[in-house]
Amino acid sequence: MYDEPFFVIVPKGHPFEEKDMIASKQLVKERILLLTEGNCMRDNILSNCKELAAAQTGLQGIANTLQGSSINTIRHMVAGGLAISILPASSLTENDHLLFSVVPFKQPVPSRRVILAYRKNFIRPKAIEAIRQSVLQSQLRGVKFVTE
């Protein structure tokens, strides 16, 4: 349905706040807040940020990684100065600058593709099409719609 980039979010006053862009390898020594293990967005982030994923496997990585149960929880924990995090474009709002700073990644920018999956023999194809059309017409900010 769409492709969207990830962004780094940092508390006000964090040194990354002054950077124009961040390379994923710069995140390795930071305290990172991610969604809980098994969450597909967490998996997307770690599969796109190889250095960060590698750092998660050691004891130091475990010590530097915190978990949140929802995107909203993560947003407020970052705003509170607990850690930095990575969020997709569709999770960001025009008022986020009041809570925390949003910093883009350097190329290659980690991203994800959001799809609508269903069984071929699903009995309500009109419902699937209605969902697809709603998303395509939603004007999500920062995403690139895929019409294939």
- CATH homologous superfamily designation: Periplasmic binding protein-like II
Order of helices and strands: EEHHHEHEEEHE
CATH architecture heading: 3-Layer(aba) Sandwich
Helices and strands: which structural class?
alpha/beta
Distance, first to last CA: 8 Å
When the domains are counted, the total is 1
- The portion of residues forming beta strands comes to 15-25%
CATH C-level label: Alpha Beta
| Cα-atom radius of gyration | 17 Å
Sketch the major β-sheet.
7 strands, mixed
What value does the average pLDDT take?
A: 87
Number of strand segments = 7
DSSP helix count? 5
Envelope shape = globular
**CATH topology, which one?**
D-Maltodextrin-Binding Protein, domain 2
Break the fold down into its secondary structure elements and pairings.
Blueprint lengths: L1 E10 L20 E4 L4 H9 L1 H7 L2 H5 L1 E4 L2 H9 L4 E5 L11 E5 L6 E4 L10 H12 L7 E2 L3
Parallel strand pairs: 2-3, 2-4
Antiparallel strand pairs: 1-4, 1-5, 1-6, 1-7
Helix pairs in contact: 1-2
Describe this structure in words.
The protein is α/β, with parallel strands linked by helices and 148 residues long. The chain has a single domain (2-113), classed as 3-Layer(aba) Sandwich (D-Maltodextrin-Binding Protein, domain 2). Helices cover 28% and strands 23% of the residues. It has helices at 40-48, 50-56, 59-63, 71-79, 125-136, and strands at 2-11, 32-35, 65-68, 84-88, 100-104, 111-114, 144-145. Strands 1, 2, 3, 4, 5, 6 and 7 form a 7-stranded mixed sheet that branches. The chain is globular. The model has no long low-confidence stretch (mean pLDDT 87).
